[in-house]
Specification:
By secondary structure, the chain is α/β, with parallel strands linked by helices. The chain has helices at 17-30, 57-63, 80-85, 89-94, 106-121, 150-171, 186-194, 213-229, 243-246, 249-254, 274-288, 302-305, 311-329, 350-353, 371-379, 389-392, 404-408; strands spanning 4-9, 34-38, 52-54, 97-104, 127-132, 174-179, 199-201, 235-240, 295-300, 335-339, 345-349. α1 packs across α13 (311-329) and α6 (150-171) packs across α7 (186-194).
C-alpha cells in the first residue's frame, strides 16, 4: 500500500484554495504518494464514515485555477468529548497516512496540532503542516508577505467598488460600503485606496481614542460636507466590518445589532448587513443636519471569497503547495509553510506567533503610522480641517465636531 497524505480545508473560502490543494496533490503524486482529500473540514476525522476521495493528477490539474474550494469546507471545531468518543483513528492507520495538511486560518492550524498530539499519544505519529489562508490578510506573516487570497479578494473588491463610484458620480449620491475584515482593515483600506474613495474607516484608525458609532458617523459626514465644499455632491465611504469588534457592547446595541456566534466564538458578521446599519445611521444624522444627500448601502464580502484567483495568488499558492512537500521531506511538522518573495521556503511555528499569555495569534493590523497610510490620508481622503470651518458653517452648527483629526484625536 502506498504511503498517503490527507488534506482538508477549514473555515471560510478564499481565492486560491484549489490552487493550494491542486499544487500539493500534483507535487506529492509525482513523488509516488497517495493523496486523500477530506470533505467538510475536520468533520470527517470525527466520523466513522468520512466523506473523502482520492485526488488524482487529472482532477488536481482541473481544479487548480478555479475559484471556491473543491474540498467542501467546515468550521467544525472538535471538543475534548469529540476526541474521546468520535475520533477516527482507523482512518489514519488503515490508509497509512504520514502527513495531514490543513488549509485555513489559525483555528484550523491549532486543531491540526491537537490532532497530531492525540495520534502521537495513541502511538501513531504523523506530520502536520498548515497553509495559512485568509482574505483579511491579518495573520502575522513576515513583512511584505500577504496571506493567500488577499490580493485576489482585493482585486475583485476594487472592481465592484470602482463601479459603485461611477454610479455615485453618475447619480450624484453616496455609497456606504462595508468590507470584510474580522480583526483588521487591510481589505477595506486596500479597496478604498485603489478606488480613491474620499473616506475610509478601519478599526486601526481609532488608536488614540475609543471607537464609537458617533465617531464613525461623523467621519463619513465630514467627508460628505467637505465634498460639498469642493462642489461634488457625490462620493463613497468604505468601512471595515472589524469596527464592530472594537465597539463596546453598549455601542453595538446602540447601532441596533444583535450577533450570533460561530463554533470558535467569533461574531457571525456575515449574517447582518453592516452597510445597511451604517447607511441608516448616517442617513439619520444627515436628516438631523438637514443635508439632502442620498445614501446607498453595499456589502463587499461573500462576493470576493470564491472569485477566480488572480495571477499573483496562482503563483503564490503554487509555491506554498510545493513548499509543503519541501518541509515534509525536511522532517518539519507542527508548522505553517511560509514562502518569501524570493521563493525560499521555511517553517513558521504557532508557538512563535502565539501570545505567551492567551495562546492566541494576535492579528496583523494596518500600520496607521506608516508612510503608505499617511499618504492616503493626506492626499486621497476628503474631510473637514480648520481651514474649512467657515465654509462648513453653512451646513454644520459646529464644524469643529466634524474635524477628521479631532474626531480621531490624531
Amino acid at each position: 500500500m502506498k504511503e498517503a497524505i490527507a488534506i482538508l480545508t477549514g473555515g471560510g473560502p478564499a481565492p486560491g484554495m484549489n490552487s493550494v490543494v491542486g499544487s500539493v496533490a500534483k507535487t506529492f503524486l509525482k513523488s509516488g504518494y497517495r493523496v486523500i482529500g477530506l470533505h467538510e473540514g475536520y468533520t470527517g476525522l470525527f466520523s466513522k464514515n468520512p466523506r473523502c476521495e482520492d485526488l488524482d493528477f487529472t482532477l488536481s490539474d482541473d481544479i487548480f485555477n478555479r475559484g471556491g474550494s473543491y474540498l467542501k469546507m467546515s468550521r467544525f471545531k472538535p471538543t475534548e468529548k469529540n476526541f474521546a468518543e468520535d475520533f477516527n483513528y482507523d482512518f489514519f492507520v488503515d490508509n497509512d497516512i504520514k502527513l495531514l495538511i490543513t488549509v485555513g486560518g489559525d483555528d484550523t492550524a491549532s486543531t491540526a496540532n491537537r490532532v497530531a498530539k492525540f495520534l502521537a499519544d495513541k502511538g501513531y505519529s504523523i506530520s502536520n503542516i498548515h497553509v495559512p489562508k485568509t482574505i483579511d490578510n491579518d495573520l502575522p506573516l513576515p513583512p511584505g508577505s500577504p496571506t493567500f487570497g488577499f490580493e485576489s479578494a482585493q482585486n475583485q473588491g476594487s472592481m465592484i467598488a470602482r463601479t459603485l463610484y461611477v454610479d455615485a458620480r453618475t447619480s450624484e449620491n453616496w455609497f456606504i460600503v462595508a468590507a470584510m475584515g474580522r480583526s483588521a482593515g487591510h481589505l477595506a483600506f486596500g479597496i478604498g485606496t485603489a478606488c480613491h474613495y474620499p473616506m475610509i474607516v478601519i478599526p486601526e484608525m481609532f488608536n488614540k481614542t475609543e471607537i464609537t458609532v458617533d465617531k464613525i458617523v461623523k467621519l463619513v459626514v465630514s467627508s460628505i460636507v467637505k465634498r460639498k465644499l469642493m462642489g461634488m455632491n457625490y462620493g463613497a465611504a468604505i468601512i471595515s466590518e472589524g469596527v464592530f469588534h472594537d465597539l463596546s457592547t453598549k455601542e453595538v446595541e446602540k447601532a441596533g445589532v444583535h450577533f450570533t456566534y460561530d463554533a470558535h466564538g467569533h461574531p457571525e458578521l456575515g449574517k447582518i448587513s453592516k452597510a445597511h446599519v451604517f447607511s441608516g445611521l448616517i442617513e439619520n444624522r444627515l436628516d438631523e443636519l438637514k443635508l439632502k444627500t442620498k445614501c446607498r448601502p453595499v456589502e463587499i464580502g461573500y462576493e470576493v471569497r470564491c472569485h477566480t484567483p488572480v495571477a499573483f495568488d496562482l503563483v503564490y499558492c503554487s509555491l506554498l503547495g510545493m513548499g509543503v512537500y519541501t518541509l515534509f521531506k525536511e522532517g518539519k511538522t507542527g508548522c505553517m509553510v511560509y514562502v518569501n518573495p524570493q521563493g525560499e521556503v521555511s517553517p513558521l511555528y504557532l508557538k512563535d506567533l502565539q501570545d505567551s499569555v492567551t495562546g492566541k495569534i494576535p492579528p496583523r493590523l494596518v500600520d496607521v503610522g506608516s508612510n503608505r497610510v499617511r499618504s492616503v490620508v493626506n492626499h486621497i481622503l476628503n474631510f473637514i480641517v480648520p481651514a474649512d470651518y467657515e465654509g462648513a458653517g453653512a451646513y454644520l452648527a459646529d464644524p469643529e465636531e466634524y474635524d477628521f483629526y479631532k474626531i480621531l484625536n490624531w
